[in-house]
Amino acid sequence: MSDAAVDDTVSTLAPGLAEATQAAGPRAVPARSGGGSIGIVHDWCPSFRGGERVLAELCKITGGADVYTLFDFLPAEVKDEFFPDVAFHTSIADRLPLVHKYYRSLFFLCPFLIEQFDLTRHDAVVTSSAAFARGVLTRPDQPHLCYVHSPVRYAWDEQFSYLSEGRLGYGPKGLLFRHMLHNLRIWDTRTAHGPDVMLANSCYVRDRIRRIYGREAQVVHPPVPIDPSGSEYVPNKDDYYVTASFLAPYKRTDLVIRAFNEMPSRRLLVVGDGQQARSLRSLATGANIEFAGYLPRRDYVAAVGRARALLFAGCEDFGIAMAEAQAYGTPVIAFGRGGARDIVQPLGSACEPTGLLFHRQTVEAVRAAVEQFESHEREISPAACWLNATRFSPERFRLQIDQALGEAFERAGALRR
């Protein structure tokens, strides 16, 4: 597809999306059951990332003015922009000295801490959970809608990966951690049937919910910020690749860096910060790999939007960064497990392709995927990527959450009868 055709496609489609956005607009769910309030519970707020974007949208949809979270480290400017008139209630552990440095190590206390939030004054409860939020105590007649980002990763199928990364074998410390994770699994299973309605953020998470909890969940993809005017869409690409994420071990940014160490003629830009930032910088051996660190949104959009393709080698529950890249017209090359399967229309699929999926987490697989992408690059148009991303609009998310809330009220009402 030529650049002119690409621009024509987006210019034709963008006004329709903008019109739909204006018509839908942010709105609160109508008051139910006597006009009471809705309390929103989120695991913790260390920074403003994908989960916190979902939280902000839930506050808009429900009109929720009270957020209950174990730890709150959000800057004041983020709260002013995304959480106006929202009160944050935190656990007593949030007052510990320098807790922002070690809050994750307190996971064994979190089930107890989450149960100390008193939500009985609220007419309904919405939980945004990747670990603990779902376990809040609710009344039998209190509607409870749970949006599941993931079952507790490190307590279930990813336990062995986390223990290995922490070098926790079968010594005293390793056995202690394994016992604490065993107890967490017991609590997690016990609380799995508390919500009236459970939503999953991807088909992958829906399948994990079915396997771990024996429950069915509807898939509601997270809202992806898509500029309805198409102004963030970048049809003309530069000659570099990008990987963008929080630099944590499970993101597998190391595989991408190792692959580009072996491809010195190809440029890679690493966007993001996190616990692995220092070790990943030392892993890069060539001048073809550049680290940008954390970028403000405007610079982030430009960096990802101009890239030839975004690479991601981890297994994400959904992966908002991949969906955002599509919204900027950027193809995605990703490991074909998890949320990437929901986001990317791969080469060879029935739909117009928007990227490529590889099926092994190895350096060799990443290299082969880049080479395959370059062989078929002309088949993947930026316009198709942008159009694909509109499936994840905030307007669609609001409608589905509203419908799910109605179902939760109906189920809770049936119990009262």
From TrEMBL:
It comes from the Bacteria. Residues 235-377 form the Glycosyl transferase family domain. It comes from Ancylobacter oerskovii. The keyword Cell wall biogenesis/degradation does not apply. Keywords: Glycosyltransferase, Transferase. GO terms for molecular function: glycosyltransferase activity. Its EC number is 2.4.-.-. InterPro entries: Glyco_trans_1, Glycosyltransferase_grp1. The keyword Glycosyltransferase applies. This is Glycosyltransferase.
